[in-house]
Amino acid sequence: MRPFVYERPADVSAAVAVASRFADQQDQPTKADVQFIAGATNLADYMKLGVAKPKRLLDLNALREPTLRQIKIGDGIIRFGALVRMGEAADNDDVRRICPLLSESLKLAASGQIRNMASLAGNVLQRTRCEYFRETSWPCNKRDPGSGCAAMEGFNRQHAVLGTSDGCIATYHGDFAQALIALDATVEIEGKRGARRMEFAKLHRLPGDTPDIETNLAPDDVIVAIEVPFAAWSRRSHYLKIRDRESYAFALASAAVALDLDGNMIRHARIALGGVATVPWRAKAAEEALQGKTLDQEVAETAADAAFAEAQPRRYNAFKIPLGKRTLVRALLETRDMKV
Amino acid sequence: MPKVISTGTSTVSKLSRRSFMSGSVLAAATMPIITRSAKAEEPPSDGQDNARALAAVSMRVNRQSYNFALDNRTSLLDALRDHAGLTGTKKGCDHGQCGACTVLVDGRRVLSCLSFAVMNEGRDVTTIEGLAAADGSLHPMQQAFIDNDAFQCGYCTPGQIMSAIGCVNEGHAGSEDDIREYMSGNLCRCAAYPNIVAAIVQARDETRRS
Ligand SMILES: Cc1cc2nc3c(=O)[nH]c(=O)nc-3n(C[C@H](O)[C@H](O)[C@H](O)COP(=O)(O)OP(=O)(O)OC[C@H]3O[C@@H](n4cnc5c(N)ncnc54)[C@H](O)[C@@H]3O)c2cc1C
Ligand code: SF4
Ligand code: FES
Ligand code: FES
Questions:
Q1: Neighbour-count burial of A273, counting CB atoms closer than 10 A to its CB (0-12 exposed, 13-18 middle, 19+ buried)
Q2: Band of the pLDDT at B34, cuts 50, 70, 90?
Q3: Which CA distances in Å does A106 have to A14, A47, A113, A114, A270?
Q4: CA atoms within 13 A on the CB side of A10
Q5: What CATH number corresponds to the domain at position A281?
Q6: Between residues 62 and 121 of chain A, which touch chain B (CB distance below 8 Å)?
Q7: From the candidates A5, A24, A113, which should be mutated to test the interface with B, based on the most B CB atoms within 10 A?
Q8: Are residues B39 and B98 in the same domain?
Q9: Is A207 inside any structural domain?
């Protein structure tokens, strides 16, 4: 691991100021000399593996603003402070009652210990678990731009079928982000030019020709909060996660679903898919296929077909297409049948 | 008697484990604790700081004060094992995937392999060595693991026990299904899982009764 200077800024503006001073604005946050650390569960892992090489770590855990550690609910918005831990958010009774999808996506992620450590901002920014990205002896366009992609012809069972490019097929593995993108969440950011807001859907970038550019954040941008709108319909929401073992595993396929129903007729469906795409993945085509329909098995299957119409399988991950479809169908029907 | 618990890794390698361990406890008892306010007054970052300088890190481990001099890269796990000599906490994967390194920090279970020791300045850490009472009587969770034969090789056991205590304290041990779900971060290569669940049920009920 590269030696690093460790600092504990006292407030958000100090964190932004130190990051601005030491980071080259052209650098990606993940490549910058100075990087933030919160729960450490993703960054420390990648530093040990030699994938992340910050020269300076800014520990966000001493930031004094109390709102960074609070969940506030009011006016149709749940506001999660960036430093709220996954476990705390998953156990929050009000969040679970208002929007089970949020709680379930957190509860089914990682383990009890990791959820105690990991922050919500760190969680959404977690980097892919692509085995070739993790092991620095392999070519990887995300880690070393232009070096090639070992996964393309390699053992790509975990890899994505949606949102892929010729340069990278790495899956975005987070669960909470699927809930956030389905629910039209917003990210609050403080950076060199002050505070701003970004649609959660704009936070992550498709790999395209630049898989090393993972987000639209600057290296001195601190996420301070995530806001999620809610209404009566969000009580009928659900996260279904399918994996190799029943717990403590990343999704092979998952579906985040929220249904606004009028009887059995769908007024509006919100759908995101995990485990199958390179970024948090909103399935708009599936949502449109459901609009105004009465939800039954057949309608759900049509929507699932629409969700995967553009899927690009590789040698070992073609199974994710039927698995992803079945996951979505089951999630839709389970959500329909929820007692709310 | 070493005055500083360790400098880099050199102190540990020169001493036998037993003399090192008794030495470190004595040293800790006589060393002044570095105050947190002194840390807060550090000058703001000026770009001149040296990434290789050892950091002074103080924390309480099992009700004892420890003052470490550590490379920033040291994980909490390595600080506990290699610098405090508390080798009860085990290193399985060193990447957050097995739970063998579980300890309690400020009462909450965490993975010590994924935390840098410097991030734990001023914290209160409990390891498997800190569970038994002063008279040697075991923590109910330790006793329950013995009563239920909840291990074979024992390598995962310190992590299982620390995680189980965290799990019960969090209120996530209500049913056997809950226990299986909320203990999933602790792998057992010997597959003692059914007995581990039984042990947690026993300890949970005993702690509830008392
Ligand atoms: C074995 C294992 C299993 C896992 N399983 C799952 C799973 O099933 N589902 C799942 O969703 N996740 C899973 N995870 C991932 C885990 O949830 C993430 O590692 C964790 O959420 C990251 O949060 P953190 O606070 O620890 O982030 P850190 O590691 O501290 O930071 C991660 C990144 O975010 C940046 N960052 C952090 N906070 C901010 C901020 N406020 N502003 C700007 N940048 C910031 C850091 O600079 C860094 O680049 C698993 C992890 C492990 C090790
Ligand atoms: S899939 Fe992406 S992350 Fe994995 S090796 Fe290819 S370029 Fe790297
Ligand atoms: S050693 Fe920490 S989780 Fe395996
Ligand atoms: S008892 Fe051997 S690994 Fe659990």
A1: buried
A2: very low
A3: 30, 24, 13, 11, 18
A4: 8
A5: 3.30.390.50
A6: 87, 91, 110-114, 116-117
A7: A113
A8: yes
A9: no
Q: How far is CA B111 from CA A88, B7, B169, in A?
A: 17, 24, 17
**Residue A213 touches partner B, C-beta closer than 8 Å:** no
CA distance A323 to A320: 5
Kind of pairing between the strands at B102-105 and B124-126? antiparallel
**CA-closest residue to ligand 3 atom 3:** B96
Residues B116 and B191 in one domain: no
Quick one: pLDDT at residue B35?
37
Q: What is the pLDDT of residues A236-274, one digit of tens each?
A: 999 999 999 999 999 999 999 999 999 989 999 999 999
Return d(Cα A213, Cα A205) in angstroms, integer.
Answer: 7
Chain B residue numbers with beta carbons less than 8 Å from the beta carbon of A7 are 45
Cβ distance A110 to B95 less than 8 Å, yes or no, reads no
Q: Which residue, B101, B130, B159, sits at the end of a domain?
A: B130
Q: Given A2, A5, A112, which is nearest B163 (Cβ)? A: A112
Please check whether residue B76 lies inside any domain of the structure. yes
Domain assignment present for residue A211? The answer is no
Kindly list the residues from chain B whose CB atom is less than 8 angstroms away from the CB atom of residue A41: 96, 111, 114
Q: Which of the listed residues B108, B130, B152 is the one where a domain comes to its end?
A: B130
Nearest CA to ligand 4 atom 4: B188
| pTM > 0.80 | yes
Q: Is residue B202 part of a domain?
A: yes
Place of tokens 């954040």: A217
Chain A residue whose CA is closest to B56: A6
Question: How many domains is chain B built from?
Answer: 2
What does the alpha-carbon distance between residue A176 and residue A86 come to, in Å, rounded to a whole number? 9
pLDDT greater than 50 at residue B5: no
Interface contact B119-A1, CB threshold 8 A: no
**Residue A333 pLDDT exceeds 90:** yes
Residues of A whose CB is below 8 A from B99? 111, 113
Q: Are A269 and A101 spatial neighbours (Cβ–Cβ below 8 Å)?
A: no
Q: Count of CB contacts below 8 A, A vs B?
A: 102
Contact yes or no for A29/A192 (Cβ under 8 A):
no
Q: Mark whether B38 and B98 lie in a shared domain.
A: yes
Range of the domain at A285: 234-336
Choose the residue to mutate in A126, A127, A134, A142 for probing ligand 2, maximizing ligand atoms within 8 Å of C-beta.
A142
Smallest CA-to-CA distance from B185 within B165, B205, B163, B200 is with B163
**Domain span at B100:** 14-44+51-130
Mean pLDDT, residues B49-65 = 93
The reply to whether ligand 1 has any atom less than 6 angstroms from the CB of A160 is no
Please count the structural domains in chain A: 2
In this prediction the ipTM stands at: 0.96
